[in-house]
Design brief:
The chain is an alpha+beta fold and about 150 residues long. The chain has three helices and six strands. The protein has helices spanning about 5-15, 20-30, 70-85, and strands at about 40-45, 50-55, 90-100, 110-115, 125-135, 140-150. It has a six-stranded antiparallel β-sheet.
């Protein structure tokens, strides 16, 4: 099976200085609302994506922690990256719903992870597990983003 185009671009650009930074900029502009969190894709492979949201004033809430919606934006970016990097070529996906539990305050940079370990792609509702961690490894949010998977039209 041929490699997914997004994963191919990530691996190619990652060989260059600042390649991951350029890839992150490119991917964040693919879905422009991702730009708001200044994300960095730090790891991407078939079945796994890791995106870091730097803690800065523009993503903070009134108590100085990373806003819950900024965290959700990072989780959705990680989900989108892992879906694009992993989905079989005969299938397509679109987000359907998101369920997130906020488990702790995010007082540092936030690392958002989407991990499809052991999950088989099938048409229909497809749950992508996502979790966000602070710099101390504390889970600050955990959930599932459900995507609708269907066969591509021929």
């Amino acid at each position: 099976m041929a490699q997914n185009k997004l994963l191919e671009i990530y691996e190619k650009w990652g060989k260059f200085p600042f390649g991951n930074r350029l890839f992150s900029w490119f991917f964040a502009r693919w879905a422009p609302y991702f730009k708001t969190i200044n994300p960095q894709v730090v790891e991407l492979r078939n079945g796994y994506a890791k995106v870091v949201i730097p803690k800065r004033k523009s993503v903070e809430n009134h108590i100085g922690t990373v806003h819950a919606i900024a965290v959700c934006n990072g989780l959705e970016m990680a989900m989108g990256a892992v879906c694009e990097a992993s989905i079989p070529q005969d299938l397509r996906w679109i987000p359907k719903s998101m369920t997130v539990n906020y488990t702790a305050k995010a007082g540092t940079d936030v690392t958002c992870v989407a991990d499809l370990d052991g999950i088989e792609w099938l048409p229909g509702d497809f749950g992508v597990p996502v979790e966000a961690f602070d710099d101390n490894g504390v889970s600050v949010a955990k959930g599932v983003i459900t995507v609708w998977v269907s066969k591509k039209k021929k």
